[in-house]
Amino acid sequence: MSSQIEMETANRAAPRQAESQGVRRLTLADFRSYDSLDLAISAALVVVTGDNGAGKTNLIEALSMLTPGRGLRRAELSDFPRKAGAGGFAVSVELGTPFGRVQLGTGVEPQENAAPVRKYRLDREPAASIRAFCDHVRVVWLTPSMDGLFAGPAGERRRFLDRLVLSVDADHGARVNAFERALRSRNRLLEEPLSQGDKTWLDAIEREVAELGIAVAAARSETVSLLSGLTLAGRDPASPFPWADLALRGEVETLVAERPALEAEDIYRAILRDNRTRDAAAGRALIGPQASDLCVRHGPKNVEAAQASTGEQKALLVGLVLAQARLVKTVSGIAPLVLLDEIAAHFDPTRRQALYELLETLGGQIWLTGADPATFAGIIARAQMLKVTPGRVASLA
After folding, report:
1. Is the domain 2-138+334-395 a CATH 3.40.50.300 member?
2. Mean pLDDT in residue range 11-24
3. What is the pTM of this model?
4. Residue 16 pLDDT > 70
5. Which of 16, 143, 174, 376 is the most buried (most CB within 10 A)?
């Protein structure tokens, strides 16, 4: 991923004009609960309040559509169109960047008897994929569904890790998808007795799995190393949001750490070949980056994060996401949009105020949601306060 980092830096020449970073205008059409919305944004801190179910999360989910993947809910395309709409949706933002303003748009046109196809536009011209957006915006988020990350299954931590990698390496998602497709092809071949032709095809697939698997593991390992180094350099023992000690656990990750890439690919390919019978019985590959785990420890206490209290886990997760935002800015040169859903109500006033102060050091635009405006008393004077009612957004007087 080092070449990716160099490219990210090289792609950012001197800014054309001074411009504060963040969303300046958000327009929605038939997205979730919004039939039509045209919202002007003028602050680095944006607070979205409203009753439960009013559409607060829908609003920031629209912003999460500016980055590769399925958004902060991991929803299917069919979930985004408004129920009473024509079947399509559109999300568009005017974005302030150090290079001037750009317009980004994505959506799906109404379809009849056909699978929806997501489209992208950059400055109102068609773009081949959302990869084009990554030169202008990065997005990180924290939602209540992530609260069980440390104590939950390893798959959730891998998904979190891949989102973290994707926020600094825009090509990581394509590698992960290609790796998963290759694994599925191998699994299908292993379901039935192999002919000689099947074995030749299996050899080719396992070569592809090994190449992609080592690339995925290497990108994850480098990102964890970068984040750990950034955390080590800036950790504050007195912070109410403790630093996380991160490590990767898995046989392929050990290969990546100890062997050159080509040698690691050869060894992994041999592992796949030697474990065909066992993998066929299991119905899946048992060794590889699809079975690795992100190990997180509460740094100041030196205990596994899963053993920390619920409050400590929440604070640790916030600290990890804030560290991710700082890493994104360091690597890409882009201060990310930070989306924090229902974040403030879980903390006491002291920790809540500390959170607000830390957020303002990130340099990007911060969106926070919450039901009770009173929990944002510490930033009301310098935030744009919005009130959501079903299908509508207005300034909070």
Report:
1. yes
2. 57
3. 0.91
4. no
5. 376
